[in-house]
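I am writing to request your help with a piece of structural work I have in hand. Here, with my thanks, is the record as I have it:
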Amino acid sequence: MALGEQRGSLWRQFFLIARHTLLIAQFAKADVHQSFRTSNWEATETRGAFRRPRSLMTSGEQDNGWILRPGCDSEDGWVDDEPVTTVCITNNESAAPPLSNVRAFRRMNCSLEFPARICKGKRIRSKLVGPFVTEPGQWASIVVELPDLLDDGDKIISFVGDIMGRDGRAIPYPPIHMHHYHVSHRRTAHWFEVHGDYAIDKDGFYRRQMPEGGCVVADGVAPYLQVQVNDVQLGGGSMDSTDHTTDHDLRKETDSGPSNVEFYLRLVFELAPPDFECETLQKLITFWPITDFAAHDVYSRYDVGSSDRVFWWTTSMKDSGEIVGPAWIHSHRARHRGFLLVKGTHSMHSLTGVGPDCAFSNDLACHDISAARQRVIENGGSLVVCRDYPEVPSFETITSRNGVVTYFDRPGKFGCSPLSFTFGQNFTIFVFSGPVYHPGNTPNTIFPQHSMIFAYYRTRDSEGRERFNRSNTIQQFAKTYGVWEIAKPELYSDSMPVRGSENDPYGVFGTGIVRNDSMYDVIFSLHNVSEDETEDDVVVENATVRDALLSSFGSRNVIGKILKQSMRTWMSIGCVLVILVILSVRQYRAEPNSE
């Protein structure tokens, strides 16, 4: 081959490599918009009358001393599935891997493998993993991929997420704390969820029943499961049980003391019959302010301290709709003193007149957090559309035989009046915080908190038809927030900054929250792409960062956004190109010149 022809061949190779790289980037960006459009398919028919189908959840079947609930309605019954290897059991929380991606488990080399079973029936879609055995005080961290459990158009009428004992019932808290149980899907880690302040129902499940006549309709994108549970028989180990007991089982007084706990990890989606007419529900989630503290906390919690404080923030609705069924909240109850949702844009001072003017006032609302909460309710009047009810206890105490008291979170009571909202409408959240138990050493002792409202809603067009026939999740974030420490007017601020912006609420890009190369591992794991197809090593410190990314940009749109904004990604692509050029030059020099 002539020298000129060899050089021309080399440049053609380089040109083809560059062209294909750009095509891949362009494809990722284009694929987003297509994916986002198809996730919001428009409905064309008006739904008929609604009812609730008969539940199959109370059935069960015997298996080697276990009662498997619910029973499997598939002709094949329970089928062995691929073993789950993304499991770590550690002696404390700090030793547990981050739940943001599968590779974190592989890097830690936990060397644990647990059998799994799957039921894919007409009405029951369930996965069981285990059995597990944990010792008192241990933490179990588990990630489970769910590539084949749900089909496009499946109508979910109830969800169960818990750990099951031999009797087929959820293991209560105590002895096991449901630190978090997240079914992640598309743009959220909270497609379905269970937290430590949720309750077991009368049938023995941690269950979320859809409002009557409503369904969450799957869109064909596979979800996956992130679970972390901890044994609290020795007390401590979470934000929810902080005092210590050492000589007894916290649920049953025994002479033998704490013992190992054996359980299955259980996930159940109960479906409506295929011909069942139900209303497609959307999910609404409001988040706490993403402060600098939250941006660096492993669970994105914000610090509420250990003194009586009021926090407030306003969020603008991203959709229009009407709340259906009961709303619920997640909050660490050791600091939970009140939770209100108020129509409009408000601050503590603008709504109640208290705060910065309290220096020499005898007004009880200036000095007592319960009175301050009541003042917001009174002055807000009909604008207060959701509220807690402090007369219903939101924690439980258990006293051991040696007199040690331990505290456990409970859901309390939270409710909303009939509530409709429009796109762009503002609502203000008021959170009242103060020591309920575990007061802390000083008023400034850090206490990491979550403050979330969840609800299902319906959305219709001007002609009364459903806007979508697949379910979506909208996530509401604060633009700024206010804080006031009760009885200290000098510690009042109306507009504290939050991390990032409305479109990037965690300030992920350029802030250093996401470290160690790129976010590819997280993004691809959301779409069940084999790890062999990704080469970047990723650690995302915070699973909620993924929520923000997916909320902001929508599913695979994140890939296009990263390709566009991440300098590190483009540098990696450039390095690959340089390596390929060097290899081609070496090959060229190794070939003898032909005359």
User: Anything to note?
Assistant: The chain is about 20% helix and 30% strand.
